[in-house]
Amino acid sequence: MRVIASYSIKGGVGKTAASVNLAYAAASAGHETLLIDLDPQGASSFYFRLRTSKKDRGKSFFSRRGRLLKNIKGSNYRRLDILPANLAFRNFDIMLNSMQKSKKKLKQILIPLDDDYDLIILDCPPNLTLLAENIFNAADIIVVPVIPTTLSERTYDQLLGFFDSKGYKKKKIRPFFSMTQQQNRLHTDTINKMGKKHSSFLKSRIGFSQEIEKMGLHREPVLAYASKKSPVQAYRSLFNEVAKALGMK
Amino acid sequence: MKDSNFDCSRYIVPVNIDRKHLLDTLGSHFALKATNHSSEKITLVDSFEWGLYTKRLLGFRMDNNNLAIWPSDDLFDPDQASVVENDNPQAKFWWDFKESPERGQLQDILALRALMPLSNGVLKSENGSLQDDEGKTLVFFQMVSFYRSASARNPLFSQVKLIPVTGYEEQQQRAQSLLLELGCFEPSLSPIDSFLGAIGVTPAPYTVKPELFITPTMPARTAVNSIISQMIEKQRLNEQGVIEDIDTEFLHHFRVALRMTRAAIAQLKEVFPEQDVLSLKERFGKIGRAANHLRDLDVFILDKKRYLNLLPESLEPGLLPMFDDLEKERASEVKRVAKWLKSAAYKKEMADLQALFEKGYAACETEWSERPSSELAVNKIMKRYKKIQKSALKITDSTPDEDIHSIRIDCKKLRYLLYFFGGLFNAKQLSRAGKQLKRLQNRLGIFNDLSVQGQYLETYLEETEHQEQKDVYLIAALGGLIATLHHMQQLSRKESIHELHAFSAKSNRQLFSQAFAAVGPAQ
């Protein structure tokens, strides 16, 4: 079982779109996949037509394993399951603070899922808190969507700095360019600059697209409704790159 | 627990429930969403031995010539088929398909066997899901129906499968009860058996090995009679396959069965009057000889790749004209053998021979005919074993090849005796003794094949001498091959001698005399 985190310090960079479509691509490539929606806003769950649970389930998420599995729901697609978001997830940090080994709780909780899944994808909320550290420990790879702008460049450097200061393995971080616009000079310049500076960038780029924006209307991963020639198929090559980096067959 | 791939429930849809009614019923409780439906001409295929079926698989040649193989529990589930790609409508052997891991699987199952069409029809499938009002899938469903033809109104077989979605167990149960209330039912047979039953195909797994029920006290002649009667039947089962030239195994098994009949007559001759034995031997012998040459050609041609691989790449094309000759010769030989098998003379002779054993061989008593079959078995097996063991001990580096070959024939005779009478002995000891014998037989078999092949090539080479235009590359290739085979034969001879000595070692002598000393508890 491998764990992919889709993570960014910044919001609105295409993180959830990446989680949802990576999960879809993985399942359609034959991998038993579980998407865990850690973001209390529940956008991932919404895209899969699941209602976010209002019950306070936050504490049991980390303390009772059986409960975790019981809340998993199948999606509309074979081999793809979802653990929907929960509003109580807002309080993760407070809860984790009171626990022992509080930085590895998430990793521990995922271990028993190994029997059922080849791949777990974590859709993460945008912040740099204790939950984020749990994510960094649990993930085998952290994909980071980066919109090629100056501001994104700064937050990306911030993330690397955080990894340095905490002694986490920066190797895990695999950024990719997200919401790129070919006509935008600033974008092309930033892509060139950052691409040269960081060799860890994945080759696949996800361009800005109306089709992706419409996911909220369709309530489906864009890969499920886009044509075979659509540029959004880049999500599949993104998945292939990540799968290769993870040594998945 | 996550269980989306487990606990699928399958229901047979009775003929009186039509598709629309079924879908309407489900539609009254769920939002029905069809994802795709298809209609495709398919042909059920398997080998003569039902190789796929015995592995709990069913294979279908699809409209596009691909071969789809389904495991029983997932029959017709489009996600679970293992597809062997193919665009050749004539493809019937594993090697006719495109190389892939799936083809490897097929190779293991079929070996030299061809896939034969068994039944055809039209497969209509519908996939979809039962959803809630937000379009969230609660249960997946698959409906598959098999029709005799595209215009047939009622399917021969129709099945609905409900595939649970994790977290929606209640809805799954609701859908199940809707189907049950309609009159759909859970099949008592496995999916492949319920399908085959519905389309009227009865699997008949086949093996050329004797399947006998000989008891220790059964009179010897009765036992021998049942052996011969069964082997004639097996021989005759293969006739049609030889005539149609479906695969080379038909002729091989035809000959194996015939050889076992002849072995039973020759080795267990004491149960028949002497003059009868002579005539039976002669009559079966004549049939046996008629197809010898075709089998030799088959063996050679099947080994084509191996021969080519023995030569340096530059000489490989040189050998191809020989195989062209062999293929041509085979084509005419197949015709000749088919004509012979279809002839009135062959049919009458076989019918006459078969009739002799059908209701028990009628002739005056002989010294052995009424004695218990267990006595005959022990006596014959031990005699044969001791003969092999004695000759094996005499083998040295200077023994002529012929003597080694004659031990090989004795081994074969012993093997047949074990096939005939194996059921009388302790299964564990029998299997140990059988394994020792098999090891030796394999070694000696290789040695023999190399000798025969070497001789054949030499004869072929001699024939080229009389040709006006001599093909230098062919001659070079033949020379290279003869030399290589000779070298391999010498090595094989050494290994054979080693194996012969091992076979006659004390531990094996004990094994055989224990295994065949007396007969186990009477049945």
How is the secondary structure organized here?
The complex is a heterodimer of chains A (249) and B (523).
Chain A: E1 2-6, H1 15-28, E2 33-37, H2 43-47, H3 58-63, H4 65-70, E3 73-74, E4 80-83, H5 92-97, H6 105-110, E5 119-123, H7 130-138, E6 141-146, H8 150-166, E7 173-180, H9 185-197, E8 206-207, H10 210-213, H11 215-218, H12 222-225, H13 234-245
Chain B: E1 9-12, H1 19-27, E2 31-46, H2 51-54, E3 57-61, E4 67-71, E5 82-84, H3 101-110, E6 116-131, E7 137-147, E8 157-164, H4 169-182, H5 191-199, H6 220-237, H7 239-243, H8 248-267, H9 274-289, H10 292-302, H11 304-310, H12 316-342, H13 344-358, H14 373-394, H15 401-421, H16 427-464, H17 472-503, H18 506-515
Antiparallel strand pairs in B: 1-8, 2-3, 2-6, 3-4, 4-5, 6-7, 7-8
Strand order of the largest sheet of chain A: 3-4-2-5-1-6-7-8
Approximate strand percentage of chain A:
5-15%
Order of helices and strands of chain B: EHEHEEEHEEEHHHHHHHHHHHHHHH
User: Which segments of chain B are poorly predicted (pLDDT under 50) over 5 or more consecutive residues?
Assistant: 1-6
Q: How far from one another are the termini of chain B?
A: 51 Å
Q: Report the helical percentage of chain A.
A: 40-55%
How does CATH name the architecture of chain A?
3-Layer(aba) Sandwich
Oligomer: heterodimer
* Large-scale geometry of chain A: globular
**What is the 3D form of chain B?**
globular
Number of helices of chain B: 18
- Domain count of chain B: 3
User: pLDDT average of chain A, as an integer?
Assistant: 88
How many helices of chain A?
13
Known CATH architecture of the largest domain in chain B: Beta Barrel
Helix/strand/pairing category of chain B? alpha+beta
Number of strands of chain B: 8
| Number of structural units classed as domains of chain A | 1
Order of helices and strands of chain A: EHEHHHEEHHEHEHEHEHHHH
Can you walk me through this structure?
The complex is a heterodimer of chains A (249) and B (523). With 249 residues, chain A is an alpha/beta fold. Chain A has a single domain, classed as 3-Layer(aba) Sandwich (Rossmann fold). Helices cover 43% and strands 15% of the residues of chain A. Chain A is built from 13 helices and eight strands. In chain A, a hairpin with a 5-residue loop joins strand 3 and strand 4. In chain A, helix 1 packs across helix 13. The termini of chain A are close together. Chain B is of the alpha+beta class. Helices cover 55% and strands 13% of the residues of chain B. In chain B, strands 1-8-7-6-2-3-4-5 form an eight-stranded antiparallel beta sheet, sandwiched between helices. The radius of gyration of chain B is 29 Å and the shape is globular. The N terminus of chain B is likely disordered.
